[in-house]
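Structure ticket #2291
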Amino acid sequence: MKRLFFATLIVLLASAVSPAQGQVVMDRKVRFGIIVEGDTIPYYRLKEIRVIESASLLSETEIRKNQKLIRNVKKMLPYAKIGKQRLDVLEKEIADLPKRERRAAIRAAEKNLLADFSDELKDCTISQGKVLLKLIDRETGRTSYVLVDELRGKLRAGFYQAFARLFGYNLKAAYDPRNNEDDNLIERIVLSVEHGRL
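Resolution: structure written out below.
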């Protein structure tokens, strides 16, 4: 009797397991995959995430100590991001244009930029302006001097640099958070803002 019971149990288990090994469940969704040595491995695209060290975010003490710089970065960061977006659009537009049309497009973009933001940026302090120059370099990967040089020419870039120096700005100052303590602090503030800490 025990033999018959165990034999029946083994047959039932074998019949329950074996069809599942050969069956393919179709969920009517297209899936991508790669085949490696006969095995199909599903391929999924995941959203990119940025992993940062918690040490790169500001501590509570640093937040209290740098309130003014935090306020300036939070105020100027949106302008730097908008500037980056507009620069990307402009560079795509002028890529294949002849020289004369290129100049006209750059002047029109400059007029639009001034019309949109000159009233808001007139009230900025010198320290906010310095932060904006650093953030523009951070976003675009090029100093303000290089941007003016590329878009308007060396003569205009030199004039703007000389004028900026009268007010304590340096358009040639590069953003270097690895080697410059002030830039590193700005970078940590930006990361804290982007991650909702500030």
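Closing remark: The beta strands are 32-36, 39-43.
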